[in-house]
Amino acid sequence: MGQQIYTPAEVLENNINGGVTKSKLTIAKMIMLGIFAGAFIAFGGAASSVAAHGISDVGLARLVTGAVFPVGLMMVVLTGSELFTGNNLMIMAFLDKKITVKRMFCNLITVYFSNLIGAVLISVLVFYSGQLDYSQGGLGAYTIKVALAKAVMSPDRAIVSGILCNILVCLAILMSGAAKDVCGKILAVFFPISAFVICGFEHCVANMFYLPAGMIAASSPDYVKKAEELYNITAAQCAGLCSGMPVRNLICVTVGNMIGGMLCIGTVYYFAHRRSISSR
């Protein structure tokens, strides 16, 4: 029987080659695949909100959310879409001198804003689908609550939470890259992503869905009224979602995600295994 998984050194080599491939994508392909990835992560966020919005116990709600949300990254991995947080691992190809810093950041910046387009598009479509009317507007109120909690997070907490999040996300990418079959890739993605969601860490692309979805929900007087009824969230707090707070959160979380993905995982993993690939 042959080897069932790739070794860590082989995973590194495959990721380096993958980084080279990503750097050579045309801008049009980066945009299309980035929009898909943003939409897929948004679908995971939307589905997990539906599943958890009626659960009052925080731990149980996060467990349910953690069981559903990973479907987003599964779709990204299995369809070959371009996700900003996972693409932070392109740092490996840069360190191996296979791509330039310009090509790396061209991909990251293009994919980042493409992810934003995909996630915002789904947040708009979810609103107009009427989904937020679930539980007599309870889902709309919950959507406001989630967005507000992220928007008021202090910058230092947002950065640290972003670091922890993308450590787990990039580990999920590396682990899925170790698997040679679809079932192995799904399982490899599920557990690290479930862990980051249950822990409540911050993912910039997920927030590209949660924050706009909350802002749109806050434009509805019915959802605002329900948020006050269920969570004691005032109309003034809802109005705050239209200020600069969501943008500040997104910036801080993005910085944290880059530190966690590029430095804590990408750089460390590269130097841990580069001798193994150089001897191949």
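^ that was protein a. below is b, sequence first then the tokens
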Amino acid sequence: MSDVTLTNPGLGTYRLKEEVAYQAVSTALELGYRTIDTAQMYDNEAAVGKAIADSPVSRDEVFVTTKVWVDQLSRDTFRRSVEQSLARLNMAQVDLLLIHWPAPEGDVPMADYLGELKAAQDDGLTRHIGVSNFTIAQIDEALKILGPGSLLTNQVEIHPYLPNRKLVEHCQQRDILVTGYMPLAVGRVNDDPVLNAIAENKGVKPAQVALAWIKQRGIITIPSSTRREHLQSNLAAMDLELTVSESSRIDTLGYDLRLANPSFAPEWDLD
């Protein structure tokens, strides 16, 4: 069995479709990325799987995540949806299977869909399990159901304008990795005066400063990009070290700008 783990940065593939997704994953693997994130809802699992299969990088070296969408959480549909994801990915097993969002309005009991998630792991469909967009209260409920050490990660929105400090600290204290999506706030970081000033002083790009800030908080980051130069830049950001003063300046930017907030989102924790 592979012992590959989540690595920084990963490649997010939200909104990347078909040939665009294929090329982004192919280029990322060529450049050295080894963590690839997809989901049922992204409608790109087949393209992601083909890019991984066609790459000279061994499947055993790539950490692949997919996620179960909210309309597949019931006991009647969960297992079949995971098997369909694996078929699209052309894989016998993923490295990480996540609940994409907690069940809207609690329509499906958490014990039901987490039980199905654990069964998928026990049956070898995934090496690790985790959750996404879970609040502090939902993390605690999940750990009561599955037990300590059961969840590898909670994947949530993290960027300089949404630091999610309380949730991050809560997860880390329980040995749950935090994976941050939308780390560049859909490009907003590029125009930020504070990030630009730090970047200019260090001879780097503001996006790299944002990614370095997230990494230094002990968070896995999964920026999405299709351009080779941006993929290279995001990878290089992992070698960037920010001073305490620089990090503190970025810490002041947070003002609860939440970009992923659908109507079925849970009641978010406020910092």
